[in-house]
Amino acid sequence: KSDMTLHVESDASYLSETKARSRAAGFFYLSDRLKDPTKAPAADASSPHSTAPLAFSPPSSVLRKVVSFTTEAELAALFYNGKEACPMRIALEELGHPQPPTPIVTDNQTASGIANNDMRQNDQKQST
Predict the structure, then answer these.
(1) Which of 46, 63, 82, 98 has a CA positioned 20 to 30 A from the CA of residue 19?
(2) pTM
């Protein structure tokens, strides 16, 4: 078990750029908190290593296509961040840190439902 597990938090800003475009961004961090990534790690006074997660963030990106709804921007951000995570996962594995499936979190319930196959796009009324 490695304490260098990649986690991703994904977000989008809808219609925040010129020409009605949106922006995708992500927050990436390494941590051993697989069960509940929202729970703060317990400090271990006997450990010489810090239990705080190592955080980094790839540059945000303006989405090339105009999207119609907030959920579409969030789904595009999930795709963008998943794509950015792939080479990081490979590098971590090559450095001896095996990676379970990378948790990617979004703050949009509809986008999460669609991405996790918990709902179809037509199940929810879209809102902007």
Answers:
(1) 82
(2) 0.75
